[in-house]
Amino acid sequence: MTICVVGAGAFGTALAVTIARADPQRAVQLWVRDITAETTMNWTGESPRLPGVKLPKNVHVTSLKEALDQASVILLAVPAQALRPFLIKHAARLGGRPLVACAKGIDLETLDGPSATIAATVPDAIPAVLTGPSFAADIARGLPTALTLACADEAVGEMLQAALSTPTLRLYRTTDLRGAELGGALKNVMAIACGATIGAGFGDSARAALLTRGYAEMSRMALALGARPETLAGLSGLGDLVLTCTSAQSRNYRFGLALGESRAPDAGMTVEGVATASAASALAARLGIEMPITATVAQLTRGETTPAAAMQDLLARPLKEE
Ligand SMILES: NC(=O)C1=CN([C@@H]2O[C@H](COP(=O)(O)OP(=O)(O)OC[C@H]3O[C@@H](n4cnc5c(N)ncnc54)[C@H](OP(=O)(O)O)[C@@H]3O)[C@@H](O)[C@H]2O)C=CC1
Ligand SMILES: O=C(CO)COP(=O)(O)O
């Protein structure tokens, strides 16, 4: 089986590295969008987005479009808002095989998750999702990690689970694509909320409250869209929520910390929760469900409120049953 990973950012590179290490006889293509990136990575032997991690010999960095044609499985590790443009541009080369979305987000224009985006743009592909609690740097270091592989087609899901698991990366399987991808997308929004809370000095108890009520919001939206509750309680939901809301390794959490501390966030980092907060708020309105934390994060990221005012508003909401 020929595996091609699209996007040589932190996550795509970490996945290519761990899959390649697991079987040195297997060539893994790591697809970058231009020749400059290809030349730089081949020269330095690493990705600028994952410095210090040397690419094994069987990872081949390429910008050739033929690498897409030749792959039997393609892992899509570009950011969520870049996924649809990529798929539209290369649709003719991507059909007839599993496309595994690794992005965690909701498309701001269509309000679709990655699997629906794949279905809409490459209708004859088999959509799958790889998601769950894992920092790219941990995967690349060979630290123990467990993720969820979601695919509606059980046989293809089993094949992908076997092909992409490594001695340190353990994949669990589900057919609940919707639940898996929504958990991964929405936890980033909650991580911004938790970071802002800690940054503003509201304390660990407030963070625990946001994390728990955030989980309630994630579940509310996911169930309204047909997901299964057990998926939300699994690695792709609760697992990733806990990781991202409690670790300063998370870019979403660090972005929130900066907001809370009234300083500029680090420039140039991918922070999926920003666009997804606004997308999820719009989707919640369309579905007629309440997602107050998500709406607050959307306002915060657009500069329409401050952490202090946002917390006051959340506390002043009408009292209700848990
Ligand atoms: N980092 C992590 O720990 C984890 C990340 N993820 C998810 O993976 C996704 C990617 O994140 P991550 O790898 O960290 O992001 P990075 O910012 O590290 O890298 C993004 C990469 O995508 C490339 N890219 C952007 N647009 C395109 C395009 N149209 N065609 C080809 N390549 C493109 C960028 O290329 P260029 O440099 O040229 O702009 C860059 O190499 C996100 O959705 C994230 O939530 C999931 C789990 C863990
Ligand atoms: O998705 C992740 C961990 O599972 C990575 O989180 P950040 O994008 O916030 O760094």
From TrEMBL:
Record domain Glycerol-3-phosphate dehydrogenase NAD-dependent N-terminal: where: 3-155
Entries under InterPro entries matching the protein: 6-PGluconate_DH-like_C_sf, 6PGD_dom2, G3P_DH_NAD-dep, G3P_DH_NAD-dep_C, G3P_DH_NAD-dep_N, NAD(P)-bd_dom_sf
Amino-acid positions noted as binding NAD(+) in the UniProt annotation, renumbered to this chain: 7-12, 136, 251
Subcellular location: Cytoplasm
EC number(s) from the headed UniProt entry: 1.1.1.94
Pfam families named in the record: NAD_Gly3P_dh_C (PF07479), NAD_Gly3P_dh_N (PF01210)
Main location: cytoplasm
Binding-site residues, substrate: 104, 251-252
Any one GO molecular-function label of the UniProt entry: NAD binding
GO cellular component, as recorded: cytosol
Annotated residues for binding of sn-glycerol 3-phosphate: 104, 132, 134, 187, 240, 250-252
Reactions mediated catalytically: sn-glycerol 3-phosphate + NADP(+) = dihydroxyacetone phosphate + NADPH + H(+); sn-glycerol 3-phosphate + NAD(+) = dihydroxyacetone phosphate + NADH + H(+)
Active-site residue list: 187 (proton acceptor)
Secretion signal, residue range per the UniProt entry: none
Example of a GO biological process term: glycerophospholipid metabolic process
Pathway(s) this gene product operates in, as recorded in its UniProt entry: Membrane lipid metabolism; glycerophospholipid metabolism
Gene3D superfamilies attached to this UniProt entry: N-(1-d-carboxylethyl)-l-norvaline Dehydrogenase, domain 2, NAD(P)-binding Rossmann-like Domain
UniProt xrefs under PROSITE patterns: NAD_G3PDH
Residues that coordinate or bind NADPH: 11, 33, 104, 136, 251, 272
Domain (Glycerol-3-phosphate dehydrogenase NAD-dependent C-terminal) ranges: 176-311
UniProt keyword list: Cytoplasm, Lipid biosynthesis, Lipid metabolism, NAD, NADP, Nucleotide-binding, Oxidoreductase, Phospholipid biosynthesis, Phospholipid metabolism
Family membership noted in the UniProt record: Belongs to the NAD-dependent glycerol-3-phosphate dehydrogenase family.
Name the UniProt record assigns to this protein: Glycerol-3-phosphate dehydrogenase [NAD(P)+]
Species this protein is from: Ketogulonicigenium vulgare (strain WSH-001)
Organism taxonomic ancestry: Bacteria, Pseudomonadati, Pseudomonadota, Alphaproteobacteria, Rhodobacterales
